[in-house]
Design goal:
Pfam families: BrxR_CTD (PF26107), WHD_BrxR (PF26109), WYL (PF13280)
Largest sheet: 6 strands, mixed
Number of domains: 3
Radius of gyration: 23 Å
Shape: elongated
Number of helices: 9
Protein name: Transcriptional regulator
Helix content: 25-40%
Structural class: alpha+beta
Organism: Herminiimonas arsenicoxydans
Order of helices and strands: HHHHEEHEHEEEEEHEHEHEE
Length: 313
Amino acid sequence: MPTNTTEQRRALLDELTQTQRERLSHIDFKLYFLGELRRADVVGRFGTGPAAATRDIAQYREIAPENLVLDNVDKVYRPTESFVPLFDHSPQRVLTALSHGFGEGVGDSLKSMVRCEFPTALNQPKMSVLAPITRAINRGKAVKLVYTSVESGRTEREIVPIALVDIGIRWHVRAFDRRRKGFRDFVFTRMESPVVLEESPIGEEEKVEKDVQWNRIIELELVPHPNHPRPEVVMMDYDMPDGVLHVKVRAANAGYMLRMSTIDCSPDHSLEGLEYALWLKDPLALYGASNARLAPGYRDPRPDAPSVPIKAL
């Protein structure tokens, strides 16, 4: 099939009904961000029959023939190396779809498309960076990229992404770093030119089950700050009629959550200011969390603990 120009693509899309464009947009989304498309994906999303789903995929191929190829081994369509999205995908909508589902299920049955943690995104990663990462998470693949960190500057890395994380001010990816032989957090805005490594096998030590900090769930008891002038307001704000807010968080994300929520984690509730509406009743609950030092006022209980400055988030 000949390749259509951008103008030809738009003209062909303009001839379609809104319903048809929605179905093609879903196909585009599945290919771009999950790296695979099955006829059942269209059937399940829109409730159409198999024949109608086949026609939708054929119509997508007519408009963007260079975007997908059939994987005869897995019997699914894959995006090609020359894939260019047929639609403009809003960053917030994409992240919402990946974290909450893209219309599949109702109510409590909604499920994320890839492993994900989220409050609210305040910055937006580039879609050309996000897409290879989410494809790698979905398919269990490694990624090669260029990464700029505060400590090491600009270096080439190989990582094995396991989950998306939203800490309120940004999205990052939890991944195994083959350079440092351990799990780390990688910020999307610091990534360049990610490429999925199709032929690079994933070792047992690189799988999500081996990430101790990710799999450890910490239970926190938050109470109105003892120095707050109106503790009853705090109880209303956080829906805590008994005066205690019970929170469960992954050890890998605990420090971020407590810092972004401005929770006093000092053992003697010594931080001052109305921004500290809550106090962590038992700071020892953070013991062993890799980023506990990010929590406001946290003090390592070990008597010989080194004083480590907070690194840039």
